[in-house]
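Could you please consider the sequence and fold appended to this message?
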Amino acid sequence: MPGVLFLKLRKLHDRITLNRLTATFFLFGFFHCFGQGIIQSLLFSADSTYHSFISEIVAAADVPPANHTYFVGSTLRMCNYLPHNDTNCVDVFTINQPSHNSSKNSLVGWESLADGVKITSSNNKQFPVTLEMKDGSIGPLTLSDQCIRTLLYPDQHLSNSRREDLAFIFLQFWLFGMSVIAMCYDSVPHLMSGIAARVLLTAWSAYSIWRTKHLQQLYSALLSAPGLEIPDLVLNCTALMIMVWTLLRVYSVQSYKCVGAPARITRMLKLHLAVQACLHLEMYVLLAGMGLWIDQLLNTYIKHISTNTPIYKGVFIFYLILVVPWTILGWYAVRYEKRKTMFVFLAIGFLFFSAACVMFYSQVFRWTFYMWPNLGCYTVSYMILMVATMVLGFLCLRNFGQGLANYLHAEAALSSSHFSPEVFEHDRDVEKQELPEFPPPLHALKAGGFERPESTYYLPTLHAMEAASGGVVAIKKDKN
């Protein structure tokens, strides 16, 4: 086992230090990962500070836990059950009516002093909460019941923002791991999966800036300017451009410069890597999406209005228990071309997708999906990845028995014999090379009275150590 681990670490080192580009790509991914993590951590800290301040005020007012707010046009409504109707909802205030906003505006500046504010409750139903500085430097401020109701909306939003920040922090490290895998295995599918994730992150960063400015118009006293979202957007755009450039400029060239498996094996290998890429991304997106939903179910007002909580918990446990074995099952089925295992993998994937679709029959899930765009993004993403994984898995199933498993087995045998193609040095960096000229097509040769010679390729074999020096055997393809 230590020897295998050493070989894997050596291969990783060889891939990272192959040329200037690979080293730069790795270092950029590493520092970008931590840079994004720091920015998201700062956002999480700011959201936690404001949320703690507001939630203490709401708790001091003894607001029923089932109460929640939402906007209908320019009117903020407060409800305590689903579906919403006039019997369980009341209007709180309408934008551009100063009479309703006066008590709310009196909170300006208090959020910056949250650590030194003393929050006390009273028996006065019209003014249930009083704020004052612990050192007595600022006099008491009484908050009306109307003001407390308006604070429910930012309380909900900031609570969800904290969850988003944590999900994005872990996602940065997950994407960095996928970038390392793409570099180790020259996996274009992993790189393309990373690019797709970066596109979504960049779009979300741009949306966050708009959302923050929009929410500032509603409760400007409780949210700061989007100073941290802008660097987050810049870093996401930079990472996206670097990954796209790497894909188009380097891996497209390497695919022509590589001497190894024939085109048929290469196509099957790409499908194999595409399944792995989808599974790697699916594992995080699925668990993150279901984790966000179950957190809503257990720690927000949804807990007090949901009538089918045990069923939702069962679905979450079903995903939690099976998602890792399902991922391993898919990798094993494709890697070793196990038909029965692949059928089991596809059946579980179908159950996963069916369970995700059935969740939309839940009224509370549909409401949370509608009100929280971040949960909607994760839900749609893992459903798309499920479909893509099953489609790619079926395509791999059709190619079983055509030589991919033997090629991968022979390649692994050579790797265990200290043979690693990554250690070969090149006269020029890959990014400086030009695409080679393609040979004339077969019909052009025949039209000129020539026959194309038998194609030859290098295939690693289990008997490579018995072959001539070089460790590979030249194999001629059959004409049939």
